[in-house]
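Appendix B, example 12.
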Amino acid sequence: MTTLADFPITRRWPPRDARAIQLYSLPTPNGVKVSIALEEMGLAYDAHLVSFETQDQMTPEFLSLNPNNKIPAILDPEGPNGAPLGLFESGAILIYLAEKSGKLLPEANRYEVLQWLMFQMGGVGPMFGQLGYFHAYAGKEIDDPRPKERYRAEVERLLKVLDGALEGREWIAGEYSIADIALCPWLRGLGVFYKANDLVGFDALKNVPAYLERFLARPAVQRGLEQPPR
């Protein structure tokens, strides 16, 4: 039978608790989605820092679990049928954890939750990330204003879509779910990482700022934002 020791990644990051879900991550908007979900669901996990500064994500051990060299990734020692399961892509991980725990993916509106999860995966994440690149990181050195304006306008549009959908709602799909856990770290990242709130009119939105505040006030969110420790 396959065990954790059969996964090469455990040789670089040895489990501290072999019974817990092994999380390989970094506190980025994508990374904290999974640590927050684990905290909210009350699942035991062992958080391992994958440092971009030392290119941990490019090592053979990490690539053996995620050939796409992106965080986060997990290794669950008690996956389906009791066998260990390795998994990458934050959206897939959120769905898996919700189904494993029976939390934050209610059957009554399952597909509404999934549509907003996909909205984050396909729109919010990529577009916010590109704006961050051209506004706050290496792309800001590019003289041509068109790339930055393209992504600025799209982020502004996506925020307005979200703002409208939140009208009369506390959470994006009605009750708190993995969709909120996917979306809110990116909303936070606009200000914390990219310093772009003014650029996209964040504070002028009617519903989104209070939505993010509600999210950040949750104790499990506050704990998850710090995992794994830098």
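The longest strand covers residues 21-25. Strands lie at 21-25, 45-49, 73-76, 85-88.
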